[in-house]
Design goal:
By secondary structure, this protein is of the alpha/beta class. The chain is built from eleven helices and eleven strands. Helix 2 links the parallel strand 1 and strand 2.
Length: about 300
């Protein structure tokens, strides 16, 4: 990648001490919600195989029903690695700043870092903007999702001048349970509009280059020609790869190297892990997410 691996390894070991230098008998990967569990496991199996070979231990994958399951798994020491949304990382950091550190971030095809919350509706609904959704049913994904809740719950009220409470601007606000659920709820007409995530690059017909829409297209769940974008957030900081700080230094270094070079060594695996077409992963530190941590404290508390 453009930045040196040395930076990634420094970030990976910055909070680790000799007290943590212990043998591990297995390695655990947590996968955020947003699509069905089997797809999540299948898309990350290649990464599990690479880590298992490098560490010479079994690798287990966990796909909890909601984002909080991964957050609590890291806090409780039962998950070692996860690709988190910025808000989920903020929740983790607020709960325990010493539990885990961001080491790498997903990089877009053009070399940029970040993604957007995308508001969308059915084409045949006639809804083309947030103005049109006033009084309608609007869907969020998960309370711990950055694009599926935190960012739109801050930015949309700045546009509408109203709260996100049901009956204020939107007729009803619902939590669907995840990004895939939001996409299907809009597709099926269960809600009028909702938000999900995407890089916002590439073609709408493909679900953009990566994100929940691209995953839904790849899975054959949706035809993007049936949907239309009605709102887009400002750029959100990219999703961090987070490693538990209590892991031995050599394990942290090995896993970091695998992830840092994944885009070059196995682009197809990077596609599955990253949720679509990505360049790979670059080093990142906590400093990139201080604004998200602040926003989460202000919005949700903790």
């Amino acid at each position: 990648m453009k930045k040196t691996l040395a930076l990634a390894l420094a970030a990976a070991t910055a909070l680790s001490t000799g007290a943590f230098a212990q043998e591990i008998t297995e390695f655990r990967i947590g996968i955020l919600g947003g699509e069905n569990a089997q797809d999540r496991l299948t898309n990350n199996q290649c990464l599990a195989d690479k880590i298992s070979e490098a560490l010479d231990v079994p690798v287990k994958m966990f796909a909890p029903a909601d984002y909080n399951g991964v957050i609590q798994g890291i806090l409780g020491g039962s998950i070692d690695l996860a690709l988190l949304g910025p808000s989920s990382y903020a929740a983790l950091h607020i709960a325990d700043p010493e539990a885990a550190s961001p080491i790498l971030v997903k990089v877009n095809l053009d070399g940029s870092i970040g993604y957007h919350s995308i508001g969308f509706a059915r084409v045949d609904s006639g809804l083309t903007s947030l103005d049109d959704v006033q009084g309608k049913t609007f869907g969020f994904g998960d309370p711990n999702s950055t694009s599926g809740y935190l960012v739109p719950s801050i930015e949309i009220p700045e546009i509408t001048g109203a709260t996100m409470d049901s009956g204020d601007y939107f007729g009803e606000v619902r939590f669907t349970g995840g990004h895939e659920q939001t996409i299907l709820a809009v597709k099926n007409g269960d809600i009028d509009a909702g938000v999900t995530w995407a890089d916002g690059q590439g073609n709408w017909e493909d679900g953009y280059n990566f994100g929940a829409l691209r995953k839904a297209v790849d899975a054959g769940l949706v035809d993007m020609n049936d949907l239309t974008e009605i709102w887009r957030s400002k750029l959100i900081p990219g999703e961090p790869i987070v490693l538990r700080n209590a892991l031995p230094d050599d394990a942290r270094a090995s896993v970091t190297q695998i992830m840092d070079t994944l885009g070059e060594t196995d682009p197809q695996c990077a596609y599955g892990v990253g949720g679509g077409e990505i360049q790979g992963f670059d080093p990142i530190t906590h400093d990139a997410y201080t604004s998200i941590v602040g926003a989460r404290r202000a919005k949700i508390g903790g």
